[in-house]
């Protein structure tokens, strides 16, 4: 599906309007451990998806450091039921523009605990195909 520049501009304008219409006060970022907390000297690499001829990035594909998700998605914006506790938010998971591993030197392992789990083969297949085809991980 192709988007014209007007459509993209209209989309951004709608997002800006939406951001100004609703505000939630009393939000606290719940910081989670990051790889650099344990390995501060990690090198940053560009994401190999940028050079993959079979993968076409779309607008706003990569997650940015300012992308968050609220722990609870239902909130009373009227103020009739104020909360004394802050609303927790977390950094979103997803693909980043820069990565902390070199795919040429990466190994991946998938560990399961046995038992029946519908869809597990599909999840494993997608991980393997994604690492092999998109990221170039060969081991």
Automatic annotation (TrEMBL):
Task: Please indicate if the UniProt record lists Cell division as a keyword.
Answer: no
Q: Which UniProt keywords apply?
A: Allosteric enzyme
Domain of life the protein comes from: Eukaryota
From the UniProt record, which GO molecular function terms apply? catalytic activity
Name recorded for this polypeptide: ATP-dependent 6-phosphofructokinase 2
Species whose genome carries this gene: Abeliophyllum distichum
